Every structure is written in structure tokens, then in C-alpha cells.
Amino acid sequence: GNSVTQMEGPVTLSEEAFLTINCTYTATGYPSLFWYVQYPGEGLQLLLKATKADDKGSNKGFEATYRKETTSFHLEKGSVQVSDSAVYFCALSDRGGSYIPTFGRGTSLIVHP
Amino acid sequence: DGGITQSPKYLFRKEGQNVTLSCEQNLNHDAMYWYRQDPGQGLRLIYYSQIVNDFQKGDIAEGYSVSREKKESFPLTVTSAQKNPTAFYLCATSPGSETQYFGPGTRLLVL
Predict the structure, then answer these.
(1) How confident is the model at residue B79 (pLDDT cuts 50, 70, 90)?
(2) How much is the mean pLDDT over chain B?
(3) What is the pLDDT of residues A54-89, one digit of tens each?
(4) B94–A99: do the CB atoms touch at under 8 Å?
(5) Measured at the alpha carbon of residue B78, what is the angle toward residues B98 and A2, in degrees to the nearest 5?
(6) Who contacts B16 (Cβ-Cβ below 8 Å, separation ≥6)?
(7) Nearest chain A CA: its distance from B14 CA (Å)
(8) Which residue on chain A is closest to B47 by alpha carbon?
(9) Disulfide: which of A33, A49, A96, B35 matches B90 by Cβ 3.0-4.6 Å?
């Protein structure tokens, strides 16, 4: 079956540091890949997505590239802010099925001033 | 103002009691989902519905029930059979694509 593995957190950084959150996946088909973000006490919201190999998703300074050869979709940001503190979820959706996504366990990011 | 509303924000359940969590959407999305979120465990799918009057069990349906009588509404009942209901419950919708849209969540606590 499908699965998503994320690096464990929390990831603790100082403001303006470079961020990488690793995500690898296992899927039988050609899934679409997503990053969702969850701020404290709220629901998840879509951060970015990529639908095919070598696609780069980007939003709010965050980027992730769909790497089929390494089955990865790592999240990066060049300079984090305190307001980026949240939990980040990597997910995949198998388009051949019923669009039920598979989520990773989430990675907590804490950014200090 | 389009969106997904969940109510209440906090809900307290007594032993042996059934409680119902509300999820309403005005996005005109066909599919709706219920997830349970526990610390360090990510999201687990409870039930989903892709069309009115039809729904399917997810990975952890035991102790829960749902109905989908209207496109806009997908209430979740946590029954007394669910022995460990304390969690954050998230409702989501989808327009039949891969992207999901989430409500603000309901936190259920046991008295």
C-alpha cells in the first residue's frame, strides 16, 4: 500500500535559517504529492503540491520538487520566520483510486526570534 | 463567504454518552471526510462520503457513525463504544480532485 515517511520533529531553528523537512513516499502508481501546514489549534491548509515527476511546487517562499528517482518530496525554505512555526504534513494521493490521501505523521517546526 | 464550519470547537463527553460533531460546507464539494488526529500520529481516516446518501468506512471506523443526507452536511457521532475518544477531529472536503480542504476542527475531551 501507499505510505509517507517524514523526518521526526521538532525541528528548531532561528529566524532566517534555512529549512529542510524530508519526506519520502511509497506508492504503486504515479501519485500527486502535497505539503499541508497546520497552525496551532487550526485545521490543515494546503501549502503546495506537485502532480508529476520533476514538478516544483511553491508557495509563500516554500518549495518542494517531485523526485521520482528518489521517491522524495522534501520541503525547503531559504529563510524562515517566527510565523512559520507550525506542523507540516507531507501527503500523497493516488489518482487511480478514490483520491483518499495518505498523510505522513507531521513534523513540528519551531522558529525562535 | 465560502468555507467549512465545524462545531462545537470543544466538546465534552461523559462516560457512556454519544456525542455528535457537526461539519457543514458551502463549497459545493461532493466529497467529505472525517479524520482523527492524535499527538504524534498524524491523521487517521474515520469515514468518508463521495456522494449524498453514501459513505464508506476508513481505517478506524469502529465506535463512530456518520450520515450524509445533504450535500452540505456530514455529521460524525462518537458512540459509547469508542473507548478512547479524546482527540482532535477534523472534517475535510474535496471537489472530486486530490486536494483536500479542512475545517477548523473540534477537540473532544472526556469528563
Answers:
(1) very high
(2) 93
(3) 999 999 999 999 999 999 999 999 999 999 999 999
(4) yes
(5) 30
(6) B80
(7) 23
(8) A100
(9) B35
